[in-house]
Amino acid sequence: GELTVGRDRSFAVLIPTAQHDPGEAVELVDKLMIAGVEVYRATGDFEQDGKKYAAGTFVIPFNQVFARYAKDILERQTYPEVRRASNAPAEAPYDVSAWSLGMQFGVKTEFAKTALPADLAMEKVTSKPKFPLPAVNAGGAWRFPYDGALSALLVNRLLQGGAKVTMTKPDARGTPTIIVTAKPEVWTKATDGFDVRPGTPSADRAPALATTINKPRVGIYQAYDPSMDEGWTRFVLDDYGWDYTKLHNPDIKAGKLRQRFDAIILPDQRAASILNGQSSRSTVEEYRGGIGDEGWEALTQFVADGGTLIAMGEATGLLVDKLPLGVKDLKRTFNRDQHYAPGTIVNLQVDTAHPIGWGVAPETWGFYINSPFFQLTESFSSQKVSVVARYPNTGVNASGWLRGEDLMFGRAAVVSVEMNSGKVVLFGIRPQHRAQTHATLPMLFNALYWSAEGDLAR
Fold it and tell me: d(Cα 305, Cα 308) in Å, to the nearest integer?
């Protein structure tokens, strides 16, 4: 059960019970088990490497066939500086350089550096555990903390069942509370797969202010010039119970979008591709071109009418260039020799007081792959520009390879702009990258909820 690399020795992976979102620990265990990894659960408290662990801690011992796989998929990826010559730049990995799954899920994992206790009592996990849900029923309403992507799944199920859902502002720990009034059968159906447990004090405390959460009307742009990110976005929306409408070029150009949608998502795609699409003669005529000037005017009118336009990755360039936003994309000012990231997990600092940051851990991990990063500039008094997530002032790289890390210090990763009267949300990170980045999924989901919050007249 011992794996050794140089002087580094490890005997197991431990997944503590104390997590920002305990449900994501279950998600992580489930994915490992699908891959053939054997996972156990401690039946009592124990001590490992001088640290105490509570009963229920997940344990992945390394005396199994897939030990090396588990270690590789969970550890931090670190790359040596490889140079063709002493004065040459470091060689970049050819593809995604980080896949630390615990980080992507927002789950803290720890490696046992000495052998596990001989008397450690464990039970093998043979099926996917239920998601823990601390909830209380008081005054005819259910209350539970909103602390991650699984909370959004539950909210969406409740909204689909016709429940009344409100969300309080975050408490001192940065966690909002969801308050639900629903028929018993709606609550039972929505919580399928969840282990409803006695709630935490924060979930039981009467809220001071609460905002109504409505079912947002979501559109997602699907270009005829294909975007892989668009497919992954739909995969995530499907998986977490969102309803949405696919929008093609004619749908955008038709205008009157605010009558149909609260939020429109532009997946990662270059601005030129969105505007101009494919022009090759080999392309069937009806699939040539992009949204063009007519479509762009329709999108700007959508925002002017109160809609929320959400752009991810390269699509943010379209909004930064063509809207009068107080935001500058710094990434485009550097060449590959100055800044490059083939796919890196980065450290993020999140403003949990902002509606898009609600329920997210204040310090978490995101996925970055040569996406924009932003600097705020002068803006109009009619706009409120907010940094929802930023890179720390030091130590941006959490796992993988990153050139020009210092250029990202303190820069914005996610920005919101409240305009007159709509909203714009710019995601420099990939919040839903390949459906793996569970830690940042709530920011995308929150942007959708934000588009339809309150008592809106549609």
Answer: 9
